[in-house]
Amino acid sequence: MPQDEPRHVRTVRIATYNVHRCRGMDARTLPQRVAAVIAGLDADVVALQEVVGASQRRAGQAAELGAALGMGWVMAPTRHLRGALFGNVVLTRFPVRQHVQYDLSWKTCEPRGAQRVDVAFDDAHVLHVYNVHLGTSLGERRVQAAKVADLVHDNRTHGASVVLGDFNEWARGLATDILSSRLESLDLTKHLPKKRSYPGFFPLLHLDHIYYKGRVEVMNVELVRTRQALMASDHLPLVADLRLTY
Predict the structure, then answer these.
(1) How far apart are the first and last CA of the chain?
(2) Backbone dihedral region of 27: left (phi > 0), alpha (psi from -120 to 50 degrees) or beta?
(3) How confident is the model at residue 192 (pLDDT cuts 50, 70, 90)?
(4) Of 62, 94, 119, 156, which residue is least crowded by CB atoms under 10 Å?
């Protein structure tokens, strides 16, 4: 067998979902409703943003969602919200080989972060999942996008990488240009008639994106618009089926 010929093929279903503190468009905070939406995705790996974590009084939404779904989870908090941790979470059906948190905060803007979760399919094959939530100002997104691209191209990581999350890019801008120039961008127009994911009940904007590096083939993409998903958060879940070769 030639040395550069792929010897292993793996399919994985991934999703990104800003759950908005599990607060829906009806102003009700219902983690179980969000859990039902995620269960309907049938995804192997789910990147969540705006999750309320543990406090002195409660285990938090990350633990509640993980328990309801029977999935493992790791959290990368960026700040505190009313005494509780607050930030990004990755849910996964696969074992987590490594978890790293990166600070993307810029100047005096709201603290932001990214997390890298290495999910292990077996002893030899890993997918690097980068869950990001960029800032709302143009200047910080430009700096954050460049830093994320540098992280993905770190020579100390090998194999396929996927970058997904809420990029807060209201229209194509510098962050999109930077990431698209250094990573492969999942072009939703090739897969979906509508690509807008925010706000949930009446989506007008495309804030949620997926990028990737390595031997990754996009097989299918879904923007979930069930009645429950339209109400559960101010974002809609974005789901993609990927084929990875090693």
Answers:
(1) 13
(2) left
(3) low
(4) 156
Phi, psi torsion values for 208, nearest 5 degrees? -100, 130
Say whether 121 sits in a helix, a strand or coil: coil
138-178 per-position pLDDT tens digit: 889 999 999 999 999 998 899 999 999 999 987 667 889 99
**What φ, ψ does residue 71 adopt, rounded to 5°?**
-120, 150
Computed on alpha carbons and rounded to an integer, the radius of gyration of the chain in Å comes to 17
Q: Look at residue 149 and give its three-state secondary structure.
A: helix
Q: Where do runs of H (alpha helix) occur along the chain? A: 31-41, 61-69, 138-152, 174-182, 227-232
Domains and CATH numbers, the chain: 13-241 (3.60.10.10)
Banded pLDDT at 188 (limits 50, 70, 90): confident
Give the whole-angstrom CA distance, residue 85 versus residue 26. Answer: 24
Alpha-carbon distances, residue 73 vs 48, 53, 61, 224 (angstroms): 10, 11, 11, 22
d(CA 231, CA 246): 39
Between strands 113-120 and 208-213, the pairing is unpaired
